[in-house]
Design brief:
Elements lengths: L2 E3 L5 E7 L4 H13 L6 E2 L5 H10 L5 E3 L4 H11 L5 E5 L10 H9 L3 E4 L8 E4 L6 E6 L4 H10 L7 E6 L5 H13 L4 E4 L2 E4 L9 E2 L4 H13 L2 E7 L12 H4 L5 E6 L2 E6 L11 E4 L7 H10 L4 E4 L11 H11 L3 E5 L2 E5 L18 H7 L8 E3 L12 H7 L5
Parallel strand pairs: 2-13, 3-12, 4-5, 8-9, 16-17
Antiparallel strand pairs: 1-20, 5-7, 6-7, 9-11, 10-11, 13-15, 14-15, 17-19, 18-19
Helix pairs in contact: 1-2, 1-3, 1-6, 2-3, 3-5, 5-6, 7-9, 9-10, 9-11
């Protein structure tokens, strides 16, 4: 079902209790499942991805479907490989089109028994769980950080621990650092030395854990503040010392006139006048360490007529959809000028005397497409074709917009 969003006053004021981080939540759930003793997880995400992962970790079924939850597919592939049972791990059609060969190959090097049920290199997978030994394995540092995190989290349960040695440049380092920090919080011995991560064998120690709010979700509010006539909004649940790489959004949005002030329990975002770009300059932003906020920033640049080149987007090709292609199609459809060079997105300034969106935005079953484009409602009424996709990471998104004056 579609939703049409507008904001009559274009002035943003209020308070939002931001949704919890699914990245932290999903890692905490895997560690909890691997820990001998129980512990509590406070503020667990209510996103579909986390709900699915929690359910499957507790399931006794012989076939498990992650539906569209990519993190669950990667994390469970590693987790199930060391459980003493046989399981078929599958998902929705789009999940069957997302590669998993790199992770499976490394697990097989460690002794895992995993077979492809359909196409080679893609889910569904038949996994016969067993004891794995670990030791030293080589992995391409340029692949999804979720593969690396999946391997790291099971590493303490391997008889000889694990040494992950990277070849090439390692991308999405903040997500790997998040995994390491959380593992260490729960008592694991982990060291990152140059191009290797060394994990000692041992048991996780039970400690209660509180999940931070989601900086990826905060990015949509940064975009809203940037596009508003005036704005003063507080987002509760965020921390200045965050494990999340997407907290860099506060630095990126200085380019668009958004000021961040940390207050008790969260952040306060305020609107300055839009900075005037210097003629002939181009804003360059590399998203290699924060790919999940690239769509949001692309839409902000287009809406503010900022000439920009967005780099480090290789992994966007294999997300819920090809996000580079989806951005190009939808922004072009709305009258913006976009070029694609390899995996780079180039936003070109254009003359737009009157802003009218006569086209609806297709979401491609991608939650971030819906939420990245929603702030355009501050320029003109915008229709999002599938409002339900936000449940994947931010189920309360539309309700939160209503709290700040957005309407249908």
């Amino acid at each position: 079902m579609s939703i049409t969003v507008s904001h009559p006053s274009k002035i943003i004021k209020g308070v939002i209790h931001l949704t919890s981080s699914k990245s932290e939540s999903n890692r905490a759930l895997i560690i909890q499942a691997l820990c001998k003793d129980p512990f509590s997880i406070e503020n667990l995400s209510i996103s579909n991805d986390t709900v699915v992962l929690k359910s499957l970790l507790n399931s006794q079924e012989s076939e498990l479907s992650v539906n569209l939850a990519g993190t669950a597919m990667r994390f469970l592939t590693a987790y199930l490989s060391i459980q003493n049972k046989e399981v078929v791990l599958t998902g929705a059609q789009r999940m069957k089109e997302r590669p998993i060969k790199v992770l499976v190959d490394v697990l097989r090097q460690m002794g895992a028994e995993i077979c492809y049920e359909e196409d080679d290199g893609y889910p569904p997978l038949k996994i016969l769980g067993k004891k794995l030994f670990g030791e030293k394995v080589l992995i391409d540092g340029g692949i999804s950080s979720q593969y690396i995190s999946a391997l790291l989290m099971i590493a303490p349960k391997l008889e000889k621990g694990l040494v992950l040695e990277f070849k090439g440049e390692t991308i999405s380092k903040p997500y790997i650092n998040m995994t390491i920090e959380m593992m260490c919080y729960f008592g694991a011995e982990v060291q990152w030395r140059e191009n290797s991560i060394i994990v000692g064998s041992g048991n996780y120690k039970a400690k209660d854990f509180k999940v931070e709010a989601d900086w990826s979700a905060a990015s949509y509010w940064y975009s809203i503040v940037a596009l508003a006539k005036d704005a003063d909004i507080t987002l509760f649940g965020l921390k200045e010392e965050s494990l999340q790489g997407d907290s860099v959004v506060q630095e990126i949005y200085k380019n668009f006139g958004v000021e961040t002030a940390f207050v008790e329990g969260g952040v306060r975002l305020t609107k300055k006048c839009n900075p005037q770009p210097i003629e002939g300059t181009i804003l360059k932003i590399n998203f290699v360490n924060c790919p999940d906020i690239a769509q949001t920033v692309a839409v902000t640049c287009a809406a503010l007529n900022v000439k920009a080149r967005l780099l480090g987007l290789k992994t966007l090709r294999i997300k819920e959809t090809d996000r580079i292609l989806a951005l190009e199609k939808e922004l072009t459809k709305l009258g913006f000028s976009i070029d694609i060079e390899g995996d780079d997105i180039i936003i070109n300034p254009i003359e737009r005397i009157i802003t009218v969106f006569n086209q609806s935005v297709e979401t491609y079953d991608d939650h971030r497409m819906a939420m990245a484009f929603a702030p355009l409602a501050l320029q003109d009424s915008i229709t999002i074709e599938d409002k339900s996709v936000v449940a994947k990471s931010y189920p309360k998104f539309w309700r939160d917009l209503e709290l700040i004056g957005f309407g249908n």
